[in-house]
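Whether sequence alone determines local backbone shape is best considered at the level of individual chains. Part of our work consisted of pairing the sequence of a single chain with a tokenised description of its backbone. This step matters because it turns folding into a mapping between discrete strings. For completeness, the protein is quoted in full, as a sequence line and a line of structure tokens:

_____
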Amino acid sequence: MQPSEKSISPWKWVPTLYFAQGIPYVIVMTVSVIMYKRFGVSNTNIALYTSWLYLPWVIKPFWSPVVDMFKTKRWWIISMQLLMGAGFAGIALLIPMPFYLQATLAVFWLMAFSSATHDVAADGFYMLALDEGKQSFFVGIRSLFYRIAMITGQGALIVFAGAMERVTGNIRFAWTITFFVIFGLFLLIMMYHRFALPKPDTDMQQDKVDNNQVMKEFGITFLSFFKKQGIVLSILFLLIYRLGEAMLVKLAQPFMLDPVELGGLGLSTEQIGLAYGMVGVAALVAGGILGGLAIAWKGLKFWMLPMALAITLPNLSYVYLAVFQPASYLTVLVCVAIEQFGYGFGFAAFLMYMIRMADGVHKTAHYAFASGFMALGMMLPGMMAGWLQEQVGYQWFFIIVMLLAIPTLLIASIVKVEPGFGKKK
């Protein structure tokens, strides 16, 4: 029997909903990179194929109206969680196959579309099921549990996979076990949400859908985004601000997994899980919190250039690691923490600028369009990162990443921001 809406506290479903939103994303975009590297796939192929997985988030705004028109947000959430759980099981079953690369990439692709659709439904459901006061109260809670999903995905699960590699002595089998564990976890989450999610009266399927009217309204919203003042410079900002990071993120973990004789650091899977899933995420969250406080204190215009420096200069830590290849694991952890803290601090300016871009009548839709360009800015540079690294080696690759700070700093210095925007009144 389904409990009534009023009897279901948001504490019973908001944390688990956003944990479920974060897990598929981090597995598709980060865990897949580590898994393919452990299977011996080349950096060129890893970066190219996994960067294509960004595409569903790039084009997400174009099919988000479908989620609004058909079925309820609750139905979409449960259905997408079921599909993603089946996807995790599919990955586990396909890993031992000789054609695993093509097959698992196809499943990851379907999971990426399901995850992007789940994002649309979950965010819409959050606004329908909670009044404005509760939305404001729980915004920090949903962000916290999304971060916990990151720690679980690129931390605990990677450490678990590494432990299975060590215990079984079989890399493929270890990752098969890991994905069956993820499948079990996600199946439990889906079954829990089947009963725990409320049924708000406002979450209804549209009885009659005027497709022409829907397309007309979407066209008006779409065109109004591109008619914003200074939109060309704004789009360039979305595409360029994280240019160096988009290249680095695809090769950072393969670099640490590669043996020393190939220019890497020779770390184990477990060490990678600890470095990025625990230390890295903690530094990222700390940087993000500090960045948000800084903007609230002085405004976005004041912090734009300093935050652009923060998101680019810490990449020097990877130049240091590539040149000296330190044997000390503590040194590696410190370098990861520095880079991730800087990224978290600098990314606060990026998020606040997207909020500025979305300001206006069609705020939700315009923010979705900005998010699409954000994903495109990660997808395109990432596709060529592996090929570039294999041409020039890790040392020169990270030096090139540092040189990409120049366009980032240029766009941050010329983009228009109103004085006082983002500053707490």
